[in-house]
Hints:
Elements: H1 9-18, H2 24-34, H3 42-54, H4 59-77, E1 80-90, H5 116-129, E2 133-138, H6 147-159, E3 161-162, E4 165-166, E5 169-173, H7 179-187, E6 193-194, H8 202-208, H9 216-220, H10 222-228, E7 234-237, H11 245-263, E8 269-271, H12 291-304, E9 309-312, H13 318-327, E10 331-333, H14 360-369, E11 373-375, H15 379-382, H16 387-394, H17 400-418, H18 421-437, H19 441-455
Parallel strand pairs: 1-2, 1-10, 1-11, 2-5, 6-7, 7-8, 8-9, 9-10
Antiparallel strand pairs: 3-4
The structure holds iron/sulfur cluster (SF4).
Amino acid sequence: MTIPPELQTDFLAGLLRRTSRPAPAIAAAIIQKARAKKGLALEEVGRLLNLSAAAGKDSQLTEQLFQTAALVKREIYGPRLVLFAPLYISDYCVNDCAYCNFHTRNRELVRRKLTLSEVAAQTRFLINQGHKRLLLEFGEDPVHNPIDYIVKVIRQIYAARTPRGNIRRVNVNIAATTAADYRKLKAAGIGTYQLFQETYHRPTYEQLHRGPKADYERQIGAAGRAFAGGIEDVGLGALFGLYDWRFEVLALVAHSQYLERTYKVGPHTISVPRLRPAPTVTYRAAYPVSDDDFLRLIAILRLALPYVGMIISTRERPEIRRQAFQIGISQASAGSVTVTGGYGRQRRQPQFAIADERPLQEVIRAVMADKLIPSFCTACYRRGRTGERFMQLAKPGSIQHLCQPNALLTLAEYLADFTTDGLREKGYRLIAAGLRQITDDAVRSETERRLAQVRAGARDLYF
Ligand code: SF4
């Protein structure tokens, strides 16, 4: 792919320099403008990113930033938080990425790829925890992880059933590949195709990668090839800590705007992983991101790209996740294991250390205590609300009128199937409050009717 001018390293670095030292009044005006939920221009994003450095973390402006981000998140997606689990399928990998424990030089790792029956067993384990959506993780290895194996794994997951349910949406993280391979993923029924650029700073990218992944252009052009292969929802991300977080955020926004302009569809999600320690990895974050800056970058992304689903993982500690849920995050992994085939068994070497080890139910309890609605919704993808159609609903915030009833219905299922009295009662109170938040009388009464059906044993009802 020819890198568009606004994604080139020199351009982004120059823009960050040009926007340094923003006057507080200008920054305040940009935050005010963001309340309209129309997103921000790159220049404006640059000024907000420079705010922390230039304004000595001006507490009033920071407060304004966080409050506005919280407001925008609420007005687009409502109070729901969608939950999912990662599932590591194969750690065979031909790449040598400085920050990842699956790097090809790791001789201590006894590599594994799951057989289809192991895939089914891991899936059943996750179903029995209450999960409905998964994110699959594969290393890059054309011999061990060819596309046909990946497709069989996806089909196996969709076919797995237990008396407590099934997986309804499979998102996939595989290495950058061809439009023909993406077509196969699409045919297998994936939800979102996620691929992180890791770092958009080209010299850093080229320094930290060896193997096919070292091809910066292959990586950055993957979303376009995925669209060409018929995939409608793509997820972007950067691994924070490899390079200056301000640069990465600016690049994520530039990449999103480029996709929107070129394909009429921006990213469905943006993930914000921070670098974590991992066994056998000696690389240390060259640009560590403090907790304050991490929360700040989430808020700025929320203002810059209001419609984007934002994902946080269990790399983050519970108290950071809690704050992040309030200021922009709309999806979170929970109860995760980052070891291939690691659910329900002795753990071997993980891809990276996790910092939130709470089981799914504990996360749900905490989320509910903060008056957010844990959601296992998978409705949009199954109703064909993908790509441009999804954008048309997400941009004006109409999507929350679907997210809210769907969150309540999936929470009601979870409460009935996976909880006992104490938590269940709290959940029902939250559902009652959530119903009152639905302003459309017809939608509210239809949701009430379906909730009664769920209580009576019906499952998988959605709008
Ligand atoms: S209604 Fe759509 S956007 Fe909202 S939670 Fe469900 S799948 Fe996601």
